[in-house]
Each structure stands twice: as structure tokens, then as C-alpha cells.
TrEMBL record:
SMART domains: Lactamase_B (SM00849). The lineage of its organism: Bacteria, Bacillati, Actinomycetota, Actinomycetes, Micrococcales. InterPro entries: MBL_Glyoxalase_II, Metallo-B-lactamas, RibonucZ/Hydroxyglut_hydro. Its cofactor is Zn(2+). Keywords: Hydrolase, Metal-binding, Zinc. Gene3D superfamilies: Ribonuclease Z/Hydroxyacylglutathione hydrolase-like. The keyword Metal-binding applies. CDD domains: metallo-hydrolase-like_MBL-fold. This is MBL fold metallo-hydrolase. It comes from Luteimicrobium album.
Length: 235
């Protein structure tokens, strides 16, 4: 499969990145956060793409808010790892749960709720058709037209966090950022699981892959393995 073309739309909520990944005319949309649906649909129309699926790297609302609206508009299911399926398919309820957890999570839920309100994105609609992704051996493969998407289970930030590999690109959601990694103090976070993910999943990725995180700039696996303090072995 040739390397994909990636067109990124950044949400006004926490700067969450939504990626339109295509090979030829076949496309998948990854992490449709709040306020991105119109821009995504415009790019799909501009480049004459056919969206085959809407995917999420994990279930947090800043990555799933517009999933229902987008799935209805293009007539495809919403795919998310089965361990995050319940939270991912009701962004409003998940936002409420995060807000209730604020005493233990440094005000993230309240800040997220305020950011969504300020964005003008409106209410989130649950997707009508949800495809829970199973990874019985830690991974799975999705075939969408010319696109072949490898799914690696990468728990820690949430129980159902995944990485999506398409050609020479890996979309890491909130597992891996340029110079940092995802937090584990939100509901469902697990520091021990994150440590295993960083060692056994991220640490085993091909160094030549381009990394597109859920927030912040792109990087490479090679750069992160060499410089990211969370990936370097302890002295």
C-alpha cells in the first residue's frame, strides 16, 4: 500500500487533531473532536474522497465529540476499541463523568466543558452505528478499500487506547506526543499499563514511522526513542 495522504483539522477544544487519512479516494477519519465536522466534510468534498469509517484512538470527548454528526453525514459506522466503546459513544455523559472526577484530575473535566461551550460546537450526538474493535492478540487489521489500517492496543491513558498504523504513519492519539506521553490520572488511566505500552508497543515501533499525535506537532518514532524522557531507559 502506498503511503497515505493525511489532512489534519485541529479542534478549537484542547487543540485535538482530527486526521483525514486517504489512499486514492478511500479515506478514514480519525478522532473527530468538537467543531471539526464541517471542515472535515469540506476537505472530503474538495478532494473527492469516500469516507469508509470514522475511527477514534480512545474515548475521551475531545477526540469523539463530532463522531455522531460525522457518521450520519457520511453514512459509516464509528469504530473504537471495545474497552472504550461505552465512554466513546456518549461524549456528553463522559464529559459529565470527567467533570465529577475533577478533584482527582486537576480540573480537566471542568476545563473541557468550558472549552466545548466556548467553541460553539453544540451538543454531541451519539453515533447511530458503533463498531467495537477487538484486539484478541493485542492488534487487529482494518481493510477499508485501498486503506489497510493496523490497530495496536495501547492501554494506559484509557483502557481502550490504540495506535493506528497506515503505511509509514502512526496515529498515536494521547498515548505518545512529541517529547511527552499521555497522562494516566484521569478515570480509567493506569500507570502500570502505560509503562507496558511504552515499553512493549511504542518501544517496538519501526523507527522510520512518522508520528501524528492527538495534540501538538508531528514527530518521528526515531526522534522520540532518542529524546523522549518517558521512552529512554532508566540509568
Amino acid at each position: 500500500m502506498p503511503d497515505p495522504t493525511v489532512r489534519t483539522v485541529v479542534s478549537p477544544v484542547f487543540g485535538a487533531a482530527c486526521h483525514v487519512v486517504s489512499v486514492g479516494r478511500d479515506a478514514v477519519v480519525v478522532d473527530p473532536g468538537a467543531g471539526v465536522a464541517d471542515a472535515v466534510l469540506a476537505r472530503v468534498a474538495e478532494h473527492d474522497l469516500t469516507v469508509r469509517a470514522v475511527l477514534a484512538t480512545h474515548g475521551h470527548p475531545d477526540h469523539t465529540w463530532d463522531a455522531g454528526r460525522l457518521c450520519v453525514a457520511v453514512g459509516v459506522p464509528f469504530a473504537v476499541h471495545e474497552a472504550d466503546a461505552v465512554v466513546a459513544t456518549d461524549a456528553e455523559a463522559t464529559l459529565d463523568a470527567l467533570a465529577r472526577s475533577d478533584a482527582a484530575a486537576a480540573g480537566v473535566g471542568g476545563a473541557l466543558r468550558a472549552a466545548v461551550a466556548a467553541s460553539g460546537a453544540g451538543a454531541s450526538t451519539p453515533p447511530p452505528d458503533v463498531l467495537p474493535l477487538a484486539t484478541p492478540d493485542g492488534e487487529a487489521v482494518l481493510e477499508h478499500g485501498a486503506l489497510r489500517v493496523r490497530v495496536l492496543h495501547a492501554p494506559g491513558h484509557t483502557p481502550g487506547s490504540v495506535l493506528y498504523l497506515v503505511g509509514g504513519v502512526v496515529l498515536t492519539g494521547d498515548v505518545l506526543f512529541a517529547g511527552s506521553v499521555g497522562r494516566t490520572d484521569l478515570p480509567g488511566g493506569d500507570p502500570a499499563a502505560m509503562a507496558r505500552t511504552l515499553r512493549d508497543v511504542v518501544g517496538q515501533l519501526d523507527a522510520g514511522l512518522t508520528v501524528l499525535p492527538g495534540h501538538g506537532p508531528a514527530t518521528t518514532v526515531a526522534r522520540e526513542l532518542a529524546t523522549n524522557p518517558y521512552l529512554r531507559p532508566a540509568p
